[in-house]
Design goal:
Length: 838
């Protein structure tokens, strides 16, 4: 005991000076005898960060830019590197993820450059194509949406990008918006954009390039090249033989992408005849040489869509595509894949992924076709590990820049690049150079829920470590969080988890109780409940909490008092749009049939609730938008724990006549005496006689008579000056009634920060900013899509150690990550006196 006390005494001196507390947004009273621990991450992702899909472009000045997909923040976003002469690559982050936690992953970047060394990068997510321009080596314009769809089933993929060298851009993509009875057929679309404006502006509307009108034919994988006003688009096309035996088709524009020529097939057999019915041509690449000649390369398969592929090359002679030639020299039955192509007036260069050194050990090979002698030189880059996805771009004076994806031992992939001298022959002057830094992979997390079981903390949270959203449970062992395990949500089988509410409570039955909602196809979004036995490390079979089948149940809340569990949730009828709140509780260990909380239904999407119980009553709080007496009022419903008793209703926040004064985000908790504690975010006029400005505060109140009356609301801390901005508090109460609040607030820098406040006997003991929890994202529209904001943090009380455990969401690297800390309440006055004296 003495050793432990001495350890805490030293930490008190250090942490108060430079620990997780930076400053007080409001109250700065003397703290109780206490101790903050350093923050620690909820998880550490030890899996490698993957870099893939490299895409290069070069300017006439000799510099190049390479973009790639990067998973160092769990979900893929776009990074890049500037290449200039012999200097080391300069890595930058081109674009970060959409702030939504359920944001789609980014994919397939495309790059172009102009004569002023400005780089343009396009990429896709599930429904949109985006475009940005570099303003400096490390700064980029805000993203321009080239195309977007309102229907979830419409998709834009595989962007291709070309510039005329002065900022006039053409963006092409695979468009899946014109589905025929939900058959994913695909079209090729293009749009012109002005890359010189800030942000980039795109002209008119997208133009469909493929001309097989009204047909259910798949078109995909466009490739583009441009010189002046001449633009060439090539793509895979299934109009002749369907998706299993595609051909390569092309279209020309001679007015910078305003209009497009009739489509024409590119690929033929080596003897000039038409392809056979079971031949296929895939993965096209296109280039325009300075003299205006147009070249196309593709993968050719003979007789079967799974046959070994060869690389074919053909030239446009001004009126037709000439007879192709095979450009790789691989032995029989060896695959050659993914061609990339550049052309000069002297030679044509093709790079591809080659399997002659083994079916699981691809290398990068290059071919140089001398246009004067018609001779082909082939050279390979043989490295120990698999090399994939080569891409070429043309520098000045016959120089090339080659990039590719390289696998490493342990599953890590990186992007490599090197200069190639192709002026008279293929000469590798450089050694391959890794372009990306070896950055650690960071988690992508949200919605923490903490509890303590027999002195051991547990944390439930949403995580996208496998791209899809799933809930996980972690246990703290010796002060560090152990590797989490997934909940039995069936997310791995395709069940969509609703990440916006997580509930975790330790019960006196020595089990953990968990509540969430997920979307099983045909059943809809339903509230589900399960238990976890820490001793046997086993899960119960999840059950649906509601007896009535509904398509949309969401935002559940869970509470416990002694042996009684209580739950509430929001249910919306997807047909009528009407909303009702429901509640249930356990009786002799079994959940009773849910009961409606409201006296009528309302037209609304959802109303988040907070539930509490004292073993005799159940309490449900929510905020409701109204047209008078404050547009956001905090309502409390309470009833005895029997189905026959009616609900009683009261307004928790004081009545007022300001119809633009919001009160939202209520939280309820009970202490061991059954007393109720409540917190919420609400407004206050800075000048009571004037309706403006309105400031928003974190409020606290408590009730000693089962919610019949409440103490006067206590202003705990300023949340946002002048205007309402989303904040979601978390509340935990010790058995003796000591309350800890965790909440985001907005400082003078207009950036959100997490802070903690302790309340004892209706008095704010302290309110302090924490060193983690910056960048919490509020509800707003981002990139044209509404996001309801990040989740609340979480607080739990540990009665064995007399500490509060807190979990915050930190976006210091834009990706949300969970961090936890402890606030100790249990040192003795004798230990505290030397600290005060010093």
């Amino acid at each position: 005991m003495c050793r432990s006390l001495s350890h805490r005494l030293i930490l008190i001196i250090v942490i108060f000076a430079a620990g997780p507390l930076f400053g007080a947004p409001t109250h700065a009273q003397m703290m109780p005898l206490s101790l903050w621990d350093n923050f620690q991450p909820a998880t550490v992702d030890t899996r490698p960060a993957l870099q893939s899909e490299p895409a290069p472009a070069a300017s006439s000045g000799g510099s190049a830019f390479v973009a790639w997909l990067d998973t160092r923040y769990a979900l893929p976003d776009v990074h890049g590197a500037w290449i200039q002469d012999a200097k080391l690559p300069s890595e930058v982050r081109v674009v970060h993820l959409h702030p939504r936690f359920d944001a789609p992953a980014l994919r397939t970047p495309a790059v172009s450059m102009d004569a002023n060394n400005r780089a343009f990068v396009a990429w896709a997510d599930d429904q949109r194509i985006y475009l940005v321009r570099s303003m400096s080596p490390s700064a980029w314009t805000s993203p321009t949406v080239v195309v977007s769809f309102s229907s979830w089933e419409h998709t834009a993929l595989q962007p291709a990008l070309a510039s005329d060298g002065t900022g006039n851009l053409v963006v092409a993509w695979t468009d899946l918006s014109q589905n025929d009875n939900h058959v994913r057929v695909g079209d090729i679309y293009a749009r012109r954009c002005d890359g010189t404006t800030t942000p980039i502006q795109c002209y008119s509307s997208p133009t469909r390039v493929n001309d097989d009108n009204g047909a259910r034919n798949p078109q995909r994988k466009p490739a583009i090249a441009r010189q002046g006003n001449t633009v060439v688009l090539v793509w895979e096309d299934g109009r002749e033989r369907g998706p299993d035996f595609p051909r390569i088709y092309a279209s020309f524009s001679y007015d910078g992408g305003q209009s497009w020529s009739a489509n024409m097939r590119v690929n033929r057999q080596l003897d000039g005849s038409d392809p056979r019915p079971t031949d296929s041509a895939t993965h096209p690449a296109v280039a325009i040489a300075p003299d205006g000649s147009v070249w196309v390369a593709w993968e050719h398969r003979t007789g079967s869509p799974t046959a070994q592929a060869d690389i074919y090359l053909a030239r446009w002679d001004g009126s037709t595509w000439n007879t192709p030639r095979r450009i790789d020299n691989a032995p029989p039955r060896v695959r050659s894949l993914a061609p990339s192509l550049v052309a000069t007036d002297q030679a044509v260069f093709v790079a591809w992924q080659d399997y002659r050194n083994g079916p699981n050990n691809p290398d990068i090979y290059l071919a140089r076709l001398d246009r004067a002698t018609n001779q082909v030189q082939v050279a390979g880059i043989a490295l120990p590990r698999p090399q994939r996805s080569p891409r070429l771009t043309r520098l000045a004076n016959g120089q090339l820049y080659l990039v590719w994806q390289s696998d490493k031992i342990g599953g890590e992939t990186n992007v490599f690049g090197m200069r190639v001298d192709g002026s008279s022959s293929l000469t590798f002057n450089d050694a391959p150079r890794q372009l990306n830094t070896d950055a650690p992979r960071l988690p992508y997390q949200m919605t923490p829920a903490l509890t303590v079981h027999q002195g051991t903390p547990y944390l439930m949270f949403a995580d996208r470590q496998y791209s899809y959203i799933d809930f996980y449970l972690a246990k703290q062992v010796n002060g560090s969080w152990a590797t989490p395990q997934p909940l039995p949500t069936q997310a791995r089988e395709g069940v969509a988890v609703h990440h916006e509410a997580a509930n975790l409570i330790a019960g006196p039955d020595n089990k953990l109780h968990l509540l969430w909602s997920d979307d099983h196809w045909t059943r809809g979004l339903r509230v589900r409940y399960a238990t976890f036995d820490p001793q046997t490390q086993s899960w119960s079979e999840p059950i649906f909490l509601s007896r009535v089948i509904s398509r949309t149940e969401m935002l559940p809340s869970l509470a416990i008092f002694s042996n009684t569990l209580a739950a509430s949730w929001s249910r919306r009828d997807s047909t009528t749009g009407q909303l009702q709140l429901f509640a249930s509780w356990t009786d002799a260990g079994a959940w009773v049939t849910e009961t409606a909380v409201l006296t009528q239904t309302f037209s609304a999407w959802n109303w988040p609730t907070s539930v509490a119980t004292d073993g005799d009553h159940i309490y449900v709080a929510w905020h409701r938008e109204e047209q008078s007496n404050g547009r956001g009022r905090i309502w409390l419903a309470r009833k005895p724990l029997d189905l026959s008793s009616p609900w009683q209703y009261s307004q928790l926040n004081p009545p007022h006549n300001d119809d633009w004064c919001y009160h939202r985000e209520p939280r309820l908790a009970t202490d061991s005496a059954g007393q109720l504690h409540a917190a919420w975010v609400g407004c206050a006029r800075r000048n009571p006689s004037s309706s403006w400005p309105r400031d928003y505060y974190l409020y606290y109140a408590h009730s000693t008579d089962q919610g019949a009356t409440w103490s006067a609301p206590l202003r705990v801390a300023l949340i946002s000056a002048d205007q309402y901005r989303t904040s979601r508090p978390a509340l935990a109460v010790s058995p003796a009634g000591l309350a800890m609040l965790l909440y985001p607030y907005y400082g003078q820098d207009n950036v959100s920060h997490f802070a903690a406040a302790m309340i004892n006997a209706n008095t704010v003991v302290f309110s302090q900013t924490l060193s983690y929890g910056h960048g919490w994202v509020r509800a707003d529209t981002y990139d044209g899509t509404y996001y309801g904001g990040d989740s609340a943090g979480s607080v739990a009380y540990d009665p064995q150690s007399n500490r509060f455990i807190l979990a915050v969401i930190d976006r210091s690297n834009t990706a949300p990550r969970l961090w936890t800390t402890n606030f100790w309440v249990g040192a003795t006055p004798r230990a505290f006196i030397p600290v005060v004296t010093r």
